[in-house]
Amino acid sequence: MPSRRQERMARVIKEAVSDIINNHLQDPRIEGFISVTEVNTEPDLKRAEVYLSIMGQDEKKQRLAFSAIQHAAGRIQSLLGDYVKARFCPHLYFHQDDRLKKTMETLKLIDEVSKEFKTDTENEEEK
User: Fold this and answer.
1) Same domain, 89 and 111
2) Predicted TM-score (pTM) of this structure
């Protein structure tokens, strides 16, 4: 269970990385809706796992945006230092988070099944 200090640092990192990616990176490969979904910090606060959800036009552009963010990790790290008021800035490790995408796909499938069920029910009522 993370300490309050870890939770506070994770919250700062989450807000800062989100702001940096959306407002301070000028890479044309970064397009689509990019959201920082989760940040996990180690107890010594020297390492932070950052999970990103990227919603783009297609899978290729999402991978391209993620690789651009990984390429800009050093720049993100240096800009993060302005947000973090601590002795040192945690080293960031980026991961792609597919939970939101999978949730959207599941909701789409549920919607399709409910439409089919509604159509079947209406057909039975007409008989």
Assistant:
1) no
2) 0.78
